[in-house]
Amino acid sequence: MCLFCKIVNKEIPANIVLENKNFLAFHDINPKAPVHILTIPKLHVDSFNEVTGETMAGMTAFIQELVKEVEIDTSGYRVISNVGDNGGQEVKHLHFHILGGAKLKWDHFSDADPKDFL
Ligand code: AMP
Fold it and tell me: How far apart are CA 17 and CA 20, in angstroms?
């Protein structure tokens, strides 16, 4: 069973922010912003590659509810899902990083030249 499935099953603890029948939101253990919350579907999906439109519709409504709950909806935030090796995905259970609470930098792209990746 994967790490996030264990969190869903309450086999390992997490700092839960919001939960409904199908989705769970909890604080990232290694926050990269003042607000750094992970949202996941409770049913295991490996990554964004496999997720259905139906699950994404539910996820969208869940994230919209979450950002209001933690009061970052008007100040702004970033939604990120890392996919696969090049995307830097460490946990192979679909998750969305919700980052906010401060003006976020775009460091890894600010001085990037596409030619550097060729
Ligand atoms: P990614 O690199 O996109 O797969 O992101 C995985 C995220 O999961 C990282 O930001 C980790 O800090 C976070 N993480 C790993 N283990 C836990 C845990 N037990 N509770 C909360 N967040 C975790």
Answer: 11
Mean pLDDT, residues 15-39: 98
Structural domains in the chain? 3-103 (3.30.428.10)
Nearest CA to ligand 1 atom 16: 29
Tell me what percent of the residues of the chain surpass a pLDDT of 70.
95
- Does 95 qualify as catalytic in the annotation? yes
C-alpha 29 to ligand 1 mean position (Å): 6
Indicate whether this model's pTM tops 0.90.
Answer: yes
Q: How far is the CA of 55 from the centre of ligand 1 (A)?
A: 21
φ, ψ dihedrals at 27, nearest 5° = -65, 135
